[in-house]
DNA sequence: GGTTCATGTCATCAC
DNA sequence: GAGTGATGACATGAA
């Protein structure tokens, strides 16, 4: 714990301050106590064990920091960057409200309570929600022992003002706890809070006596501390085990996916935005009249969906999408009773009994989405049909369809025509829009009591809004963050790898300065191929044209080389001149030598003490036997000669290694023929040529390898970008579909509201629904009949499938 | 002293 | 069949 304290005072405080500045409160204690790896990584930085050693100082070059990959500062750097990314990504998390973790600390003077709040992950339960949950044991049970964060979101409005205080207070908790020890007044609220805490912590193994005030008073401070530590240890072990197993603590604990990047536990409200705390509260259900049979389902379903984790959500999304695809040419299948998802808490009051139009932004369940998919209409088309339907009138439809319906179908027993035909002049528009489709599944308003309010605030969670906007957008947002906020591809890759690292190939070595392009850039002046012309040996030959050899050649032929200062100039320029990397700004700080095809002769520095690749060559040959006492120039040359060069010099080969290696075969043979060479000399020359060519080939081979890796990496990046783009498009399509559904729904409501029977009375939405006939007419159908038709169609479908 | 990286070298295969 | 390129494997020096 010591190191945790250390980092708590450093990284965590910074992190907390950052979060408090933006009004977000995260229960850090939970993660600290649990030792969750992601947060530890955030605080402590990524472990070096998991950090891919970069080829060429990738990270420091990308971010402009001169941090060596092996530097111990790198962890701090990563931690800082991760913290920044955390803060940046918070706006994508849509934290609904702030949270006051220290609220209870002010209210509860008891040390143990505060300690329990601190030591246990349920510290955040000490808010108003906890007070309210006293009367709602189920809610407490749902939160479970570790439901630290989720329960605290149940009071969004009031806590906003307190949110800024929260972080500060949480910092002050230890001191305040001590100062509050003298306050022994326990109010009923405090006792209730203790009960709440006990209910939650008992799941974690904490005994009831921990919260027993009388027994606590008798305990000494040391015992308290021991208990705290024991509790903490038990919780930590439990948490660690649950973390390792990737499971939650128990059935009481709601499934709370952990953010892959932050390690932050995602509250269930985040998973399902439709399950707002207001909906979860018990008071809402009582307000709404529950005379309808369908109504009790409404508050239940959202709760049933709350434990969905992201994977399930994604599967649901895919299922929904498949459902849409399947039902493109199909009619509505879902029970029309499920179309009650027209209202939301944002909906206004009703102006009519049954025909209140819905202004909800979240409408449409799976059945609806499947139904609307069958129209294949653009939203503009739907909008254009709106006006004409306002004028829909109702002639006496009973004359049109006298045989279809009788009084038995009328639940009220009235002689009300059950099937009505709309005015044909207006229905044609509808027909052109919707075709011969049964609208009852799509448009049917909820089967409600006549006095019920469609927009009473209950709504089934929209699978698109709840699933897509969370799970899909998470990934998209990360990708967008990478692409739009100036992140480099390597950083984007890092982000994406945190999302899914499905490749065994470490692509994090991306943008390695050793990229072939770089090496090509760096050695662009040199020949990159061994198939060179005769002029190649003048400048660009690979390092066998040494100065020593050149000196020999100069003595023998007076031809090539000598000790040429240009070579050292080339060496410095090629290796270290960052201007050559101007087109690749991320390579500015790269000093690695990837000038594969540069002549080794050029690597000889003017001054041997100069660092660089030249020295390596010299050092490498230190182990080789030196010639006898040489003059200083000769010794220097020998020091910086390759093995073959020294051999050639020892064997008195009369021409340079450059020529030996790079001359074409014919010229090479001519050269050999010109000189009378011994067998040993010829063998050495052939070896030199073979090794020299092979060295070039090896360099080219490695370059190609890097090329391949980088190309693959680029391909991966492109594919990921495409994936993100496609996901975005998919989201847009879904949004447009949702808007279409809303408009169709409102259209339906308007039409239905204007319908009157022969007595001028409006049709009750609970008994009638609109339906389109095969001839394009719009009919008012009793719901019982519509339901019967609905039930028939799946049977037909199944039969068709069986066929 | 061990590890990683860059580079050279050899063996082998294919053209 | 020789020459050459490509490439895996290994060795070696430097950091």
TrEMBL record:
Residues 114-186, 216-291, 333-373, 489-546, 598-647 are annotated as: Disordered. Residues 684-747 form the BZIP domain. GO terms for biological process: cholesterol metabolic process; regulation of DNA-templated transcription. One of its GO terms (molecular function) is lipid binding. One of its GO terms (cellular component) is endoplasmic reticulum membrane. Residues 174-186, 216-242, 635-647 have a biased composition (Basic and acidic residues). InterPro entries: bZIP, bZIP_Maf, NFE2-like, TF_DNA-bd_sf. The lineage of its organism: Eukaryota, Metazoa, Chordata, Craniata, Vertebrata. Keywords: Activator, Cholesterol metabolism, Coiled coil, DNA-binding, Endoplasmic reticulum, Glycoprotein, Lipid metabolism, Lipid-binding, Membrane, Nucleus, Repressor, Signal-anchor, Steroid metabolism, Sterol metabolism, Transcription, Transcription regulation, Transmembrane, Transmembrane helix. It is found in: Endoplasmic reticulum membrane; Nucleus. It comes from the Eukaryota. It comes from Coilia grayii. This is Endoplasmic reticulum membrane sensor NFE2L1. Residues 709-743 form a coiled coil. Belongs to the bZIP family. CNC subfamily. Residues 116-125 have a biased composition (Polar residues).
């Amino acid at each position: 714990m010591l190191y945790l304290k250390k980092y708590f005072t450093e990284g965590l405080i910074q992190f907390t301050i950052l979060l408090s500045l933006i009004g977000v409160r995260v229960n850090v204690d939970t993660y600290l106590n649990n030792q969750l790896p992601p947060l530890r990584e955030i605080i402590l930085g990524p472990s070096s064990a998991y950090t891919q050693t970069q080829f060429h100082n990738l990270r420091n070059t990308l971010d402009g920091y001169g941090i060596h990959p092996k530097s111990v500062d790198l962890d701090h750097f990563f931690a800082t960057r991760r913290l920044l990314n955390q803060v940046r990504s918070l706006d994508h998390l849509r934290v609904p409200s702030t949270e006051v973790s220290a609220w209870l600390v002010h209210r509860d003077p008891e040390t143990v309570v505060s300690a329990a709040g601190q030591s246990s992950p349920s510290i955040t339960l000490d808010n108003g929600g906890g007070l309210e949950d006293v009367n709602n044991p189920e809610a407490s049970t749902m939160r479970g022992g570790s439901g630290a964060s989720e329960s605290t979101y149940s009071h969004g409005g009031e806590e906003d003002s307190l949110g800024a205080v929260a972080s500060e207070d949480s910092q002050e908790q230890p001191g305040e706890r001590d100062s509050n020890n003298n306050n022994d007044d326990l109010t009923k609220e405090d006792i209730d809070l203790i009960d709440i805490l006990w209910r939650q912590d008992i799941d974690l193994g904490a005994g009831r006596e921990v919260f027993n005030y009388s027994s606590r008073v008798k305990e000494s401070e040391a015992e308290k501390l021991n208990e705290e530590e024991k509790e903490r240890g038990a919780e930590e072990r439990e948490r660690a085990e649950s973390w390792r197993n990737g499971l939650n603590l128990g059935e009481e604990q709601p499934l709370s996916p952990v953010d892959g990047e932050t390690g932050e536990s995602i509250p269930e409200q985040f998973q399902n935005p439709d399950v707002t705390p207001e909906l979860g509260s018990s008071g809402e259900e009582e307000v709404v009249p529950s005379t309808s049979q369908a109504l009790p389902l409404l508050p239940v379903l959202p709760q049933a969906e709350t434990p969905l984790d992201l994977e399930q959500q994604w599967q649901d999304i895919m299922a929904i999408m498949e459902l849409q695809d399947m039902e493109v040419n199909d009619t509505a299948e879902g029970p029309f009773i499920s179309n009650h998802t027209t209202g939301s808490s944002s909906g206004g009051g009703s102006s009519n009994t049954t025909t209140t139009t819905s202004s909800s932004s979240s409408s449409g369940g799976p059945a609806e989405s499947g139904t609307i998919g069958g129209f294949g209409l653009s939203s503009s088309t739907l909008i254009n049909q709106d006006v004409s339907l306002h004028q829909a009138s109702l002639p006496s439809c009973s004359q049109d369809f006298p045989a279809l319906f009788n009084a038995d179908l009328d639940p009220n027993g009235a002689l009300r025509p059950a099937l009505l035909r709309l005015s044909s002049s207006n229905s044609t528009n509808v027909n052109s829009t919707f075709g011969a489709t049964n609208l009852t599944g799509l448009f049917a308003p909820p089967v409600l009591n006549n006095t019920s309010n469609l927009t009473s605030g209950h709504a089934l969670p929209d699978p698109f809004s709840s699933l897509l906007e969370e799970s899909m957008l998470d990934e998209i947002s990360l990708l967008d963050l990478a692409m739009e906020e100036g992140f480099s591809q390597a950083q984007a890759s890092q982000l994406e790898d945190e999302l899914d690292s499905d490749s065994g190939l470490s692509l994090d070595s991306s943008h390695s300065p050793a990229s072939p392009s770089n090496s090509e850039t760096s050695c662009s002046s040199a020949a990159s191929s061994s198939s060179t012309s005769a002029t190649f040996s003048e400048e660009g030959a690979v390092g066998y044209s040494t100065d020593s050899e050149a000196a020999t050649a100069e003595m023998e032929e007076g031809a090539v080389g000598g000790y040429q200062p240009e070579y050292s100039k080339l060496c410095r320029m090629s290796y270290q001149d960052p201007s050559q990397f101007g087109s690749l700004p991320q390579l500015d700080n790269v000093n690695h030598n990837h000038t594969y095809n540069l002549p080794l002769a050029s690597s000889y520095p003017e001054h041997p003490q100069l660092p660089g690749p030249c020295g390596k060559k010299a050092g490498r040959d230190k182990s080789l036997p030196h010639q006898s006492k040489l003059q200083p120039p000769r010794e220097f040359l020998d020091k910086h000669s390759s093995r073959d060069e020294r051999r050639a010099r020892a064997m008195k080969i009369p021409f340079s290694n450059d020529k030996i290696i790079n001359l074409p075969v014919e010229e090479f043979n001519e050269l050999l023929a010109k000189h009378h060479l011994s067998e040993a000399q010829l063998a050495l020359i052939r070896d030199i040529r073979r090794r020299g060519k092979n060295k070039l080939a090896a360099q080219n081979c490695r370059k190609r390898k890097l090329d391949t890796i980088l190309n693959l990496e680029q391909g991966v990046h492109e594919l990921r970008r495409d994936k993100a783009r496609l996901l975005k498009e998919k989201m847009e399509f879904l949004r447009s579909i949702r808007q279409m559904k809303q408009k169709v729904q409102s259209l339906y409501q308007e039409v239905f509201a204007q319908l009157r029977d022969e007595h001028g009375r409006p049709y009750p939405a609970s008994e009638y629904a609109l339906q389109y006939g095969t001839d394009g007419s719009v009919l008012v159908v009793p719901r019982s009949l519509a339901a019967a038709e609905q039930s028939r169609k799946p049977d037909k479908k199944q039969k068709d499938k069986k066929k």
